[in-house]
Amino acid sequence: MTARPRTAALGLALLAALAAGCSGTTSEKNTDPTQTTEPATVAADRARAYMGAVVADNWTTACDLMAAPRRDACHSRHPTPEPPDPSGPAIGPVLLDRPPTHVPATSDHPAGWGVITTHTVTWPGKPARTNYTALRMTEAGGTWWVEQREDVADTDLTHSGDPAASALGREAR
Questions:
Q1: Measured on CA atoms in the order 73, 71, 172, 164, is the torsion positive or negative?
Q2: pTM for the full model?
Q3: Which of these, 131, 143, 134, lies nearest to 109 by C-alpha position?
Q4: Burial class (CB in 10 A: 0-12, 13-18, 19+), 131
Q5: How far apart are CA 31 and CA 171, in angstroms?
Q6: Which of 35, 53, 63, 113 can bridge 43 by disulfide, Cβ–Cβ 3.0-4.6 Å?
Q7: How remote is the C-alpha of 15 from its chain's centroid?
Q8: What is the DSSP string of the chain?
Q9: What is the pLDDT, as a whole number, of residue 21?
Q10: Is it the case that residue 18 has pLDDT exceeding 50?
């Protein structure tokens, strides 16, 4: 009778050891170097980083996230960091408003991913206002860059099937 409980205990111990050896932690499973991330996701993350830098007045970072043809002009417009204005508005976090969409080329910009970000701005004593910004993200050298930035109009949000394409498709006048 003692052999059977010992065999059962040994069997349970063996199963536990096998189970422990076969499972890995989540971080171990997600460190596979062959994993690929969707281009739209990477483009959206870079768009959020850019807008986060813009709303924080961190133009060094924001300009560095722009496409090469626009980067130098951005650095020229914002040569030195501005100190934060303590009397300025409270600005909420930059969020993605919706999933990225493909946007076609225009006469001024190549095709890419259209990303709409949103953040709130609250001036002292006033209600919060939500700002929507459309960003055209293009890939160069394996990295996603901000090619174009446009404010999203209410009509883009309410009368267009693709607000990002609508905002980014307007020709400069």
A1: negative
A2: 0.76
A3: 134
A4: middle
A5: 43
A6: 113
A7: 43
A8: --HHHHHHHHHHHHHHHHHHHH---HHHHTT-TT----HHHHHHHHHHHHHHHHHTT-HHHHHHTB-HHHHHHHHHHS-SPPPP-TTS-EEPPPEE-S--EEE---SSS--EEEEEEEEEEE-TTS--EEEEEEEEEEEETTEEEEEEEEEPPHHHHHH-S-HHHHHHTPPP-
A9: 43
A10: no
CA angle, residues 7, 12, 14, in degrees to nearest 5? 95
Under 8 Å between Cβ of 151 and 132: yes
Q: Tokens 């170097």 sit at which residue?
A: 33
Residue-wise pLDDT tens digits, 26-52: 344 444 444 557 999 999 999 999 999
Task: Quote the radius of gyration of the chain (alpha carbons, Å).
Answer: 25
Residues 6+ apart with CB under 8 A from 90: 121, 122
Q: What is d(CA 114, CA 98) in angstroms, rounded to the nearest whole number?
A: 10
